[in-house]
Amino acid sequence: MSIREVELEGHIIDSRVLPKVFDLIMDMDGDFEVLDFEIGKEKEDESYAKIQIRGRNQGHVDDIVSELHRHGANLPEIEEVEYERAPADKSLPRGFYSTTNHQTYIRYNNEWVEVERIEMDCAIIIDENKAICKPISEVKEGEKIVVGEKGVRVVPPERPREKSVFEFMSSHVSPEKPSNSIIDQVANEIIKTKKSGGKIAFVLGPAIIHTGGSKHMASLIKNGFADVLLAGNAVAVHDIENALYGTSLGVNLETGEPQAEGHKNHLYAISEIMRSSSIENAIEQGKIEKGIMYQCEKKDIEYVLAGSIRDDGPLPEVITDTVKAQDKMREAIQDVDLVVMMATMLHSIATGNLLPSHVKTICVDINPDTVTKLTDRGTEQVMGIVSDVGIFLPKLTEKVLKNS
Amino acid sequence: MSIREVELEGHIIDSRVLPKVFDLIMDMDGDFEVLDFEIGKEKEDESYAKIQIRGRNQGHVDDIVSELHRHGANLPEIEEVEYERAPADKSLPRGFYSTTNHQTYIRYNNEWVEVERIEMDCAIIIDENKAICKPISEVKEGEKIVVGEKGVRVVPPERPREKSVFEFMSSHVSPEKPSNSIIDQVANEIIKTKKSGGKIAFVLGPAIIHTGGSKHMASLIKNGFADVLLAGNAVAVHDIENALYGTSLGVNLETGEPQAEGHKNHLYAISEIMRSSSIENAIEQGKIEKGIMYQCEKKDIEYVLAGSIRDDGPLPEVITDTVKAQDKMREAIQDVDLVVMMATMLHSIATGNLLPSHVKTICVDINPDTVTKLTDRGTEQVMGIVSDVGIFLPKLTEKVLKNS
Amino acid sequence: MSIREVELEGHIIDSRVLPKVFDLIMDMDGDFEVLDFEIGKEKEDESYAKIQIRGRNQGHVDDIVSELHRHGANLPEIEEVEYERAPADKSLPRGFYSTTNHQTYIRYNNEWVEVERIEMDCAIIIDENKAICKPISEVKEGEKIVVGEKGVRVVPPERPREKSVFEFMSSHVSPEKPSNSIIDQVANEIIKTKKSGGKIAFVLGPAIIHTGGSKHMASLIKNGFADVLLAGNAVAVHDIENALYGTSLGVNLETGEPQAEGHKNHLYAISEIMRSSSIENAIEQGKIEKGIMYQCEKKDIEYVLAGSIRDDGPLPEVITDTVKAQDKMREAIQDVDLVVMMATMLHSIATGNLLPSHVKTICVDINPDTVTKLTDRGTEQVMGIVSDVGIFLPKLTEKVLKNS
Amino acid sequence: MSIREVELEGHIIDSRVLPKVFDLIMDMDGDFEVLDFEIGKEKEDESYAKIQIRGRNQGHVDDIVSELHRHGANLPEIEEVEYERAPADKSLPRGFYSTTNHQTYIRYNNEWVEVERIEMDCAIIIDENKAICKPISEVKEGEKIVVGEKGVRVVPPERPREKSVFEFMSSHVSPEKPSNSIIDQVANEIIKTKKSGGKIAFVLGPAIIHTGGSKHMASLIKNGFADVLLAGNAVAVHDIENALYGTSLGVNLETGEPQAEGHKNHLYAISEIMRSSSIENAIEQGKIEKGIMYQCEKKDIEYVLAGSIRDDGPLPEVITDTVKAQDKMREAIQDVDLVVMMATMLHSIATGNLLPSHVKTICVDINPDTVTKLTDRGTEQVMGIVSDVGIFLPKLTEKVLKNS
Q1: Does the pLDDT of residue B272 top 90, yes or no?
Q2: How far is Cα C131 from Cα C146, in angstroms, rounded to an integer?
Q3: Which of D175, D181, D390 is the closest to C254 by Cβ?
Q4: Where is each Arginine dihydrolase ArgZ/ArgE-like C-terminal first subdomain domain found (chains A, B, C, D) (predicted)?
Q5: How distant is the Cα of D171 from the closest Cα of chain C, in angstroms?
Q6: How far is C68 from chain B (nearest CA, A)?
Q7: Cβ(D380)–Cβ(D355) under 8 Å?
Q8: Same domain, yes or no, for B293 and B351?
Q9: I need a labelling partner for B274 at 20 to 30 A (CA). Which of B180, B328, C249, D189 fits?
């Protein structure tokens, strides 16, 4: 039998660190003894626990400690972080520390240094006195890569104290909850974020356009409720198709009927932009006078259109290289406080991968699968709402504009 | 090789009989020759076709003809219908004619007699000069049961000519169609049906109440847009829970938050009704002053609350015997022109089983499975809309009341 | 501000009582101070906590305590339980204690008495020195009904210690987990339960028959792995249809092709049974020689066929009164140790409603909705597996028979 | 009122052209008269119909004819195709002919020329005496682009005559069909295709690996049943993770349990490949000795790994530019006879977009949405099977290997 100790500190009840630690030890077939325990008397107080972990052998106990560490348990000894050099470009040394999406610090030169740009499944690079989180694709041969858990501290987010959609919901909203109050709460979250100077990103799928949501989303942008837009080629193409011809995929968005020859409209829309050589130019030339892309340009909103193998065209602003697109998305969501994902599995999961766990995230989709997959892949902070964006978005827009 | 002839008559193009006949022959590995074909010159004209079916042997060709017959192909000879006596109660003779849900006639005493109360998967009983469709559960020993296809004619419905939700939709509405125009069309269908003196049945699941739809549905009833209500115990219990305590399953429908001790409310609601010994009495006594059940009683709307093994209580008006409940439902939907099903798989499929194919049927559910199953089980006329009833119903109600 | 104290005792970490209590207080906007805390040193030791709850006023703090109580927190004072008389048949007094599905005790005549037949959303009746859990439908005027939480103790189940499918899974198995090992673990759970003398109930939907699973399920029954069968009319009808004609809903189960005239087969099957006046007689008369119903009769397995409004027939053994059917189901699952639900939403939820929380429950369905709804409705112990029963059941049967 | 005539020729019943034409005219609110009609006496004979279309005005009737044309109706006059020059790169002239995915011919220099590389939503380029289908992204300024429908003939596929999975299934297989016979039929289709010298493409999602399917798919490749593999980075990464460490996303594929530190394995796998600078090299160096990628390299199977914004790494062989990836996929599926798609929405829809309608296509997914979306987007030939690939693929592999 082998033994190691871990410490838990801070809001270990609010952040659910304590129960998760107990669960994990038992999941991994370990044993434990609580050596010391001081619970904050009041809910604002910090708590402290020292727990002795026992395993079958050193490897077993190390595995358990390593897993606990990812969830906020720390080794009591304060030791310097350890690193190794990257053996090659895009290559990580054995034993590298793989990041969580929680706030993370390393002990470097006797100081706790916060890791910048934290994101799950990446490596921590030590660059002079800075610690930077980098995806494997950006790792260069010879960079100092953190290995092991020594000198690394992880701080999972606390559960929000204020009454909010995030507290109210338990990670997954069944379609059997009162719709009106859910929309109210999402609207309030958006308003509150903007009032406190926060930044909001919207992640959109083309169903937004097909269901007639272009004008509603455009109105949110126009009124300052969107700071970043993440989408694919299809959102832009059909938004512009709608602006130019009143259709989406050839279906008239007023009548719901397919327009004669309408199946060509999205290709006409692409052709039109191609002749202007960019969406931006087309708007400047006055070709496009409404819609999501129009408002993005007018309000100078940052948008990233990421390419996919399903694209027609694609439009000139679309970043067809997926690695570059991912980088641009990563850049765009820095300092974002709230992310609203609607009707896209691909872009929602891709964005979820890049988000730190403290960023509030709402995902609205008619397919419960999208929410399940987001959570399964580690974006556990997401609040999933199973609803029909075609009716949800107009209602949400109305409430945001009315209540703000 | 064996040979038989069938005739097709009437609007065999509009009703899609012709293409279905060709398909079926090929599906069943048969061969055919078109002996005679006169197509209606204009779309209003009737057409006529005589087709020779060839099969490997008599059994094979009979099987094909039998299948074609169910889809509207007739034998050219006009012969009297044949029948046998039911061998026992709830028992059918070998070779009995199993009904489709299409309009059906039998040749009896040299006259074409329409089969009353047509419904799929039943038997035709000859009672004096009448032909009545009966489920196996109602068959009595000794009754005259139609056997074989001789003297039976099936008339599948034509596709609707007027512009309507039924023409516009192709059996299944993806959640990627313009929401606004879909709701408009359903609203128009409801208004049109009532304007022309038609009868509308609503089939509801409890999610209607949980999502805050009680007042909207109540308003549709109050304003005369519902003639029949089919639901289960849970709809009534939670509607009354909402009327009495403002909650559904303990969740406050205004704030969306669970009410303290709210989980007892549905049992209080049941207790309250039990003390009045019926919903009707409770309303008369002034205990309940709003909601779906209240409006049903006030407007004297026919409702059937059918029991299920999931029920708490159940309320006194609930018909706990499923055979009796089915009979009541069957009774209630006679002469209905439009059925709107919302958020219930069990009651939607059960009602679908009882409906003739010419009754317009709309099914709104967030789970596409409900629509798929309805269609798979033979309710092919259903127009499925995959949406969130929590937002769909208020919007629909608003449109119906505004446009009517 | 008002104040009350609660105590937590026992395996409050294993049973997740402690974290849930902290969460609930914060959810309900309360405040707390931990007055006393002794954590079991080792994982087998019991722990103890005394927590002071603070609320805005007496009502608020009472609401919080009441909610905590349902999850295993107790009032420190040991007081006698309180009761009131039922005001009418099927009617509960104001303030009645509404049961959870956890093991429950009442303090009556200075003794802790375990509540018999515990099941969620019911009342506790005191009958001489016994405490019995009863659904509202069985409550008689004048019976002693427990009110308030005084003298009531709730003991939530601990998480299982042994390695098992229940530990391995986190309530919901995504279809992205290794299929082979999941089936292995379910098979092991079945084998283990039988080896230790336990009782297994199967809850089945008709898709089991339509996908060709009749012989596999029959084989599990024949080999002694099923003690109770819960299903509806359709399972029995199509199982017998298959035994008599080799089809299910007219589709040949070997070739997968619809059989000519096959759509009549299920009505022939019903007719056949009706002429024998029961399934049991038909089997005795040698009409049926294989399948699920055949094995149930041969092995004298208890089965409950509960009626629904979708039924054709129904067969004589089907209990058409849903209240009586529910009672029979309740009876049948007493002392069951493992429940395996497959491909039925209605019967799974109905059975889930009746189960104590300590009964291990597995639900296999291709529709993730079934699992979500089961959990949302309080059957939190369920382990959901999203898979295709058509391939899952044969594989499971093979493994159970091979490994046992 | 305006009038135009169209002709239908060939197997207009088998190909369902005739009924579709009648439907479309009525959908579009037109009128018609059948001027001439000769139906093939026997099912092998060709038929002929001349139909007069009437509309409200010239525009209306043109719209109708234009729509009919896309479904195989031809103008009776044989006229030369018309073209215009592309106004710019990636830009199409007004009125360009937008392709269907059906076999298409143009009348050029008095000859019927078949359009090469036909694919939906593209343009037809005339290049000397050849007609080539090109996506808008490949159109160059000045190229001759076909406009209007004059001189264009579309030949929709006939329904297959032989008994096969495609005839048996009606576009969507519910999970309530006999599983065994479905797998048999898919296996037979694969065997038959290879026996007749055909080419099979597999389109795979990572769930194939997570559910333990790597070895089964590898075995299909090894035994010559796959000619082309289309997938994303994740399939390759996790297949290699499994080959190197026995895990997929850190989960041990034998035991189903998460491996300690396993969450790093996919990044180790990427690192390993990066150090070899390609999958190919890593295999040559003996690092990888089993799995899908291994067999692809050993059997020299063409594979396309297309990048997406969700990728980690990505691996060197992944084509990160989505336009280039699409081109490679387009190239790879030329002359493919059968496509089997499993567990991926993105790659299935992307591949479906590129396929001519005569290529047999099977899609297996647990999410019915994938199949619905494929069909909604025009890949109407797809046969959807809602099942669990984790159990489906091993069973399919077993049958293919045993029966071939």
Answers
A1: yes
A2: 9
A3: D181
A4: 103-183
A5: 15
A6: 11
A7: no
A8: yes
A9: B328
Q: Which residues of A touch C50 (CB under 8 A)?
A: none
Residue D42, chain B, CB below 8 Å: the answer is yes
A14 touches chain C (CB under 8 A): yes
Name the helix (H) or strand (E) containing C50.
Answer: strand C47-55
Chain B CB contacts of C308 under 8 Å are 308-309, 322, 346, 350
Instruction: Kindly state whether C331 is in contact with chain B, defined as any CB-CB distance less than 8 angstroms.
Output: no
> Is residue B247 within 8 Å of B262, Cβ to Cβ?
yes
Determine whether the interchain pair D34/B18 forms a contact, defined as Cβ–Cβ distance below 8 Å: no
Suggest the residue from B145, B287, B309, B367 to mutate for an interface test with chain C (most C CBs closer than 10 A).
Answer: B309
pLDDT of amino acid D172: 55
Determine whether the interchain pair D98/A263 forms a contact, defined as Cβ–Cβ distance below 8 Å. yes
D273 or B372: which carries more pLDDT confidence? Answer: D273
Contacts D253 to C, Cβ<8 Å: 178, 181
Same domain, C142 and C215: no
C79-to-A299, C96, C110 alpha-carbon distances in Å: 67, 17, 8
Q: In this structure, are D138 and D217 located in the same domain?
A: no
Interface-testing mutation among B17, B24, B39, B365, with chain D (most D C-beta atoms within 10 A):
B39
* In A163-264, alpha helices (H): 165-168, 179-195, 207-210, 214-222, 233-245
Helix or strand (DSSP H, E) at B355 = none
The whole model's pTM is what? 0.94
Q: What pLDDT is stored for residue C45 in this prediction? A: 76
Rounded to 10 degrees, the C-alpha dihedral C112/C115/C118/C121 comes to: -90
Q: Which domain holds residue B319?
A: 165-403
CA distance D365 to B312: 37
Those of residues 207-246 in C touching chain B at CB distance below 8 A are: none
Contact (Cβ atoms closer than 8 angstroms) between residue B149 and residue B75: yes
Q: Are C373 and C229 in contact (CB under 8 A)?
A: no
Quickly count helices (H) and strands (E) in chain A.
14, 19
CA atoms within 13 Å, Cβ hemisphere of A74: 21
pLDDT tens figures, B16-43: 788 788 888 888 888 888 888 887 766 6
Judged by CB atoms closer than 8 Å, whether chains meet at A19 and C37 is answered as no
What integer pLDDT is reported at residue C97 of this predicted model? 96
Domain count within chain D: 3
Q: What is the pLDDT along chain D (404 residues), one digit of tens a residue?
A: 899 999 988 888 777 788 788 888 888 888 888 888 887 766 677 888 899 999 999 999 999 999 899 988 988 888 999 999 999 999 999 999 999 999 999 999 999 999 999 999 999 999 999 999 999 999 999 999 999 999 999 998 876 655 555 654 444 556 678 888 899 999 999 999 999 999 999 999 999 999 999 999 999 999 999 999 999 999 999 999 999 999 999 999 988 888 888 999 999 999 999 999 999 999 999 999 999 999 999 999 999 999 999 999 999 999 999 999 999 999 999 999 999 999 999 999 999 999 999 999 999 999 888 888 888 888 888 888 999 999 999 999 999 999 98
Measured between beta carbons, which residues in chain C are less than 8 angstroms from residue B348?
none
| H or E element, residue A130 | strand A130-134
Chain A residues 57-96 with a CB less than 8 Å from chain D: 63, 66-67, 87-92, 94, 96
Nearest CA to CA, how far is A376 from chain D (Å)?
A: 11
Question: Among C159, C188, C219, which residue terminates a domain?
Answer: C159
CATH code for position A100: 2.40.420.10
Same domain, A102 and A68: no
What ipTM was predicted for this assembly? Answer: 0.93
Contacts of C180 in chain D (CB under 8 A): 212, 254, 256, 390, 394
